[in-house]
Amino acid sequence: MKHIDYKELTLGLLFLILPTILIMYPLLGFLSEYYSLLFVNKHILIGVFAAGIITAYLLHKTKIRFLIIFGLLLLVINLIYSSISASSFNEFDAYYVANRFKINTSIFVFGWFSGFAISKWRYYLIVFSILLTTISVILISDMEMSNVKDMIWLIAPTVLYLFYGLYVKELLKTIRNQKKTNYLMVVLRIFLFSLIALFLFWATIQLLDTKINHIQNEITQGQGEDEEGDSDDEEDKEKKDSKDDGGSSGAKFNLDDYLGLRDRLSVSDELLFCANIDNFINESTPNPQYITLYHLNQYNPTLEQFEIDPDSIVRDLFLPNPTKIPQYFSQQNDSVLIYDKMERAIKEVKSTIYIAGLSPEVFVAPSTAYACQPISIEEEFKKDYKFAYNVYSEVSELNSAYFVYNTTERSIVNYQERRYRTLRTAKNYDEEDDRFMEYYTEVPDGDLYNKIGQLADSLTEGDQTTIDKILSIRNYFLSEDENGEPLYTYTLTPGKPTDPNIPNASMLGEFIFNTHEGYCTYYATSSLFMLRSLGIPTRVAVGFMTVDRSHKTPGWYWFYADQAHAWTQVYIPEYGWLDFDMTVSNSDAEEAPQPDGTPPTPPTKETYVGKGLITVVDTIGKSMQVRVDKMIVNDNGISLDSTDVIDMKFDVNQAKVFAGEQTISLANVKLGDTAVMVSFDYKLGRIRPKYKSETIEDYMTLFPDPITIMEVHVPKIEEDKLNEANEEEQDSAIKTLTDWSIYILAAILLLLFILVLSPLCYYWWLSKKAKNNTSVVELSQVNYKNAHFVLNQMGVQRGHLTPMVYARDIVDPKFGTHFEAFVKIYQKLKYSEDELTDDEVTLVQGFHSDFNQKVLSKYTKSQQFINFIKPNKWIHYMLNLNLKK
Amino acid sequence: MNQDLEQTHSENLKPATTSVEDKSGQNIDVLIENIGKVVKGHREQIVQIITCLIAKGHILLEDNPGSGKTVMAKTLAYSLSGKHEHSDFKRIQFTPDLLPMDLIGSHLYDESNKDFIFKKGPLFCNILLADEINRASPKVQSALLECMAENQISIGDQTYKLEDLFFVIATQNPIEMEGTYPLPNAQLDRFFMKISFGYVSEDIELEIYKKQLEIQRSQDAVEAVLNMTDILALRSKAEEVHVDDEIIQGINNIVRGTREHSGILLGASVRAGIILLKCLRAYAVINKRNYVIEDDLASLVKPVLQHRLLFKSRGDETNAVDSIVKKEITRLSRLNLKR
């Protein structure tokens, strides 16, 4: 057996391997998160890496045949991998398992190699750090990380780690060559070094903070000029644009930007969705409606942005989550129809939205929508669109997107004229509810808003009707200055207020009274305050501008990310909220970044839809049994009472199973889930609706058994919940892990404490015993123990000497005690039957204090204390010197 | 049989008074000191020889020529006063042509009485120095060893008792093995101890050279400090030494340990254990104790047992016994007081 230095091994593990694992932790986290490595958990990844590096390091340090084991390991891993990827059982798909295995093992092998290399090669750390830096750089570029500080925090630890690692490695190398090493000093030095390095790094960052911020600003401005492109990862998007958490949407673009006044706005040209809006003027001319996401009633003057008012008195916003509605079933909210205050010129409009880049959880519709029905997508369009739903809206006949964008189309011009005429006859606001009026005409206090009010007054001088006032304001935005140039221009980068004398100057004021440059939100905000100051109830809507670009497919509209828009909605009594867009023309948005696609053909008419809990799934016979509680037969909803619930058998041989947007195999369908079974079978098309009088059993005899099903929809929510549950489980596992580690740490600390204190207690106990004992025999015993204990703690150890030799040759010459005489008496007590003489008794009685005093006087108080509490000596005493009965 | 004999002897030779005891304890120191004047730097060996003397055993010294074996034996003999001015000390140089008769003695025809009379050989003495015992033929060796064991000589139908105090110091030369008859293990077993002298330390060697004349003079004029009665008294005193049960357990553990040790081919016999016990008692007397302690074991086990064992390897030869003893000493030293 070769010699192994365990202390050096421990130091290496603690100060070389542990930091390596720590440095890998965020990086692996980023990697697994960003590349969404097949649901591989980063904790598992780091665990695998740690296992690899530690095993390899230990194996190499303990000089066990390393290369052979490594070779064997690679062989075994390869074998397992090939066997996994080759195997497939019926529905079981081994691809994910194999891939996960591959990722885990490659991380393990990387860890293994690192452990080996760190142990063996002096300069491997440099290679390792370069590798890490490279990965970081790739990550930064891939993630389009634009924050300089983030970049610093990603790269700096690696650089620090490099210096740290080199230092520690050298230190360990030097101590290996030394004969005697003070390991405490080594540990202290490493700590000091790390501290100094960390401090220097921190100080540098602090000192350069302003400069970094400066660079940061330059970078962001530079990016504003040349537009960002490229699409983001789909999964990220879904996380971001949940409508429920108060307001963001879209993929690359962020609708939040449209809520307020920013100095710049970046847009992309990704296709978000396409819509078929069944709204025509005179049955032939399409009348596109703006697609609303939500409308905003509240304005925050400090941040200069709009907010959703949770306590709004007008609740006319229908906000379902389309993915949570079972396929072909509709969710409806009729209360919005009361709140929208529409009484005249109402038109029912059905639209179909095909979602492409947008999150399907976001509900977009022409206002005022009141019902949503998810539908299937024809097979050939499934790769383009991930979700589709029908929307039913109540739309004013007077509402139109053609407002700013002048058109020569005769029917539209006529329509607009007619519209203005009608609106001029509209009632004034006298009959309106005071609270409603107050809420929608609220203008913040301040010079700026007074000035806006004055401007509005001057612009609308002489106008009598609401619509004339609106038109005057629109004309103002479209007007030309004395040079014949347009007064207002559209820009995505209006920039910050330039007047340095006014800090935090209002972007709004800057827009209206100075630059006249801005994007839609500026126009919407300005007109909002102008109109409100005139006493006209106004609000801002956020959504998508509808552009009719082509006449080939009337009623079909394509929506790209740069069509995200904000505009004003004005309340006209009896006609409700009408869209008025004051934004000057923006040629970018009118031209499609790519030609409009073929409109998706509507899916075959569904003849049967059944919803219920899955009770049986037969993956081999390809059939399912569902406890149906709701059915739609040829558009006739048939709701079943709980007593009527029946198990229906379905033939799913031709069916596709969808979980959300994903197609899954039948084997992954879980019992107890709610499933929606859809059939397009024309044979079912002849089935009549259920008579009220007949029982469900009788009605069911009209259906074939089993019913042939084309689509099975399993909610994706279940999966989410599952993930959540998993996460929770992991969280709790981590929690228990941390709890346990705290317990273990506490136990170790307690043990250490006991170890440190127990020698002292033992010493006091012995002294007390020596004082109280009257029996010479017991006293001798105590003295003997005490002497051995004290000498042991002071480092004068007996080893394998007999007590007599030890006393005579070592102790007495060193301390000038009478230990030999005492040992003689002790041996006499031990091995003979003679009684002690008086002299001997006196010696035993006086021995304890005399001995302790003589021995301890050779040491200083601090030496005594340190020696007494040394646990290793204490353990040695307990193991080797403590007496047995 | 051996034991029985010893018992009868001890009964016969019990000293009349007990007052000698204290004196004899001191006398041993005087004896050791007396020998130490001549044999410098070998106190340990002197003590071991005296231990054997008191334990009624015999000793085999094995060392290179010129290490002081003969001087040691002579000085010991001269330090003890016998019937005459000195104790009866004989020295026989063993050679291959030596005959048992030369040791034991022979019947001679006495013309005056017209009868054969027994002419006693050199064995009839108190202390016998059998020099280079391995040079004699096995016949002679076994004759000597028989006498050592039986303490009597049978010739024809007559039995001649040897002296009460009969102590053999045999020496043998480890080098020049040619033409020698090494003692078989069975015969080695008869010797209580086999010890070697080894070279003295540099200081003592220098002292020996410097004070050579002085040492020579004191060697010539060794005083008798003890007489035979004292030795016999010490022997009987040794028999009274208390041996604690734990020490007996220790002897047992050690002896059995030699049989179980992986590095030892042939372990110690029961006789070896008995001899060890006897030596321990004698050693305790020498150290002026009437009880045996673990230190005694530590000092005696190796000289008593080493030559009785057969080892697997050279490493075992140096370490095996030590490790057994160390283990036992550790056990004994960790025992609590019993009373």
Amino-to-carboxy terminus distance of chain B: 37 Å
* Greatest chain-chain contact: A-B, 24 and 22 residues
Could you give the order of strands across the largest sheet of chain B? 3-6-9-1-10
Number of domains of chain B: 2
Q: What is the CATH first-level class name of the largest domain in chain A?
A: Alpha Beta
According to CATH, what is the topology of the largest domain in chain B?
A: Rossmann fold
Rg calc of chain B: 21 Å
Strand content of chain B: 15-25%
Mean pLDDT of chain B: 83
Structural class of chain B: alpha/beta
Q: Which percent range fits the helix content of chain A?
A: 40-55%
Could you describe the largest sheet of chain B, including whether it forms a barrel?
5 strands, parallel
Indicate the proportion of strand residues of chain A: 15-25%
**What is the domain total for the residues of chain A?**
4
What gross morphology of chain A would you assign? elongated
Number of strands of chain A: 26
How many alpha or pi helices of chain B? 14
Order of SSEs of chain B, N→C?
HHHEHEEHEEEHEEEHEHHEHHEHHEH
**Shape descriptor of chain B:** globular
Polypeptide structure, described:
The complex is a heterodimer of chains A (885) and B (339). Chain A contains 25 helices and 26 strands. With 885 residues, chain A is an alpha+beta fold. In chain A, strands 18, 19, 20, 21, 22, 23, 24, 25 and 26 form a 9-stranded mixed sheet that branches. A 5-stranded parallel sheet of chain B has the order 3-6-9-1-10. Chain B has a two-stranded parallel sheet with strand order 2-11. Chain B folds into 2 domains: 2-235, Rossmann fold (3-Layer(aba) Sandwich), CATH 3.40.50; 241-333, Orthogonal Bundle (Helicase, Ruva Protein, domain 3), CATH 1.10.8.80. Chain B is globular. Classes of the chains: A alpha+beta (885), B alpha/beta (339). The A-B interface holds A 777-778, 780-781, 800, 802-805, 826-834, 880-885 and B 242, 244, 246-247, 289-295, 298, 326, 329-330, 333-339.
